[in-house]
Specification:
Length: 299
């Protein structure tokens, strides 16, 4: 995840938690049978806020005392190691209930180990232990994580976690794994919103052939260039040149060809580089010359 978002030039925060901490939280709250209800509720905290999450837990049958044990954990601040130190104390019997949770302590140990690995790997992205992170899917058994974009307001753009038992339902028992899901639509929105798309990706078209009423002359040339690996299109209507130039500019098309009756009669194709203004004229059969002019090797 760190590598992908670094290459996309998106600043992110990777949020991590562990499902064993959530199980331990339910245990010290005195409601181990409510772990799913607690998980589903706190997973919505970014969307509906803490008060609504508390109300939902109450609706699911958690007592006020149980909610009072869970609430301060969801608002815990400090660096990652400090958060884990507090959680370790709670799971050792330091909560209001005095209950000890071995499952919770195992989750703390796993997160401490994970933080060590993150340091070893020299992960560049910000990494934050978020004790309200739950991930709604109950097949996760260990570390869980989500990615938030730092410079664009949107929900998580990537998520996943560890599962120890999931493969068993596919006939492959006792095999653990870690899954990552990249949110393609949301990542696209972030890239678009932050103007991170390279200009070369704005269009797949290399050459726009303007429609000057000589379509029958252009079609065999366009077909031959496409067979050479050049992406071409002919403007779909014979209209003002300004409109056709604006279309090329809007789509980021780098080359344009304007061939009227004189060029058709002479069997010539002219190409213009819209960025530099350079222009050359070629025989309609000089496909290699045209390819070389646009600097594109056959695909």
């Amino acid at each position: 995840m760190d590598t992908v978002f670094r290459r996309l030039d998106i600043r992110v925060c990777i949020k991590i938690n562990n499902r064993k901490l959530l199980s331990g939280l339910a245990e010290i709250a005195g409601t181990p049978d409510k772990v799913v209800d607690i998980t589903v509720a706190i997973d919505k905290i970014d969307k509906i806020g803490l008060d609504a999450v508390k109300a939902e837990m109450a609706e699911k049958g958690l007592s006020a005392e149980a909610v009072s044990v869970i609430e301060p954990v969801l608002t815990l601040s400090g660096d990652n190691r400090a958060k884990l130190a507090v959680m370790k104390g709670l799971f050792e019997g330091g909560s209001a209930s005095g209950i000890v949770s071995q499952d919770g302590l195992k989750g703390v140990a796993e997160l401490e180990e994970l933080l060590d690995y993150i340091d070893c790997a020299k992960v560049n992205s910000a990494v934050e232990i978020d004790l309200s992170l739950a991930r709604g899917l109950n097949y996760y058994t260990g570390a869980i994580f989500e990615v938030k974009a730092l410079d664009f307001a949107i929900g998580s753009i990537c998520g996943g976690g560890r599962y120890d038992n999931l493969t068993g339902i596919f006939g492959l028992p006792d095999t653990s794994g870690v899954g990552i899901s990249f949110g393609a639509d949301r990542i696209y929105d972030v890239l678009l919103g932050l103007d991170k798309f390279p200009s070369a990706l704005k269009s797949s078209t290399d050459i726009l052939f303007a429609d000057m009423g000589e379509t029958a002359f252009l079609i065999p040339v366009v077909k031959a260039l496409r067979e050479k690996g050049v992406c071409c299109e002919i403007y779909p209507e014979n209209t003002k040149l300004k409109k056709q130039f604006d279309y090329a500019d809007r789509k980021g098309i780098p080359f344009i060809s304007i061939c009227g009756s004189n060029e058709a009669a002479a069997g010539q194709i002219n190409l213009k580089n819209l960025a530099t203004g350079e222009q050359q004229t070629f025989s309609k059969d000089d496909l290699d010359g045209m390819v070389a002019f646009i600097g594109q090797l056959p695909k």
